[in-house]
Amino acid sequence: MGDGSSVTCYTAGRPYTSGGTSSCTHTYERASGSGPPYPITATVYWDISWSGGGASGGQTLTRSSESALGVGESQAIVQ
């Protein structure tokens, strides 16, 4: 996640909905501020099995993608 932590999810996830909850989330404790954005990597593993024509087999397909995520911060003052 770029801040020293990682998240592992064992389901395919679900589309984002405002106010929704998920068991596969991460909350950043600090904004990236004027420093560089957090470097993030997402990796997906697909376990594939097949059979047909009297034969069968399987393999694991792995795909990764990297990006940088700027994390902002919002504060409110109540008077």
From TrEMBL:
Compositionally biased spans, kind Polar residues: 58-67
Region listing for Disordered, in residue ranges: 1-34, 54-79
Protein name per Swiss-Prot or TrEMBL: ATP/GTP-binding protein
Organism field: Nocardiopsis tropica
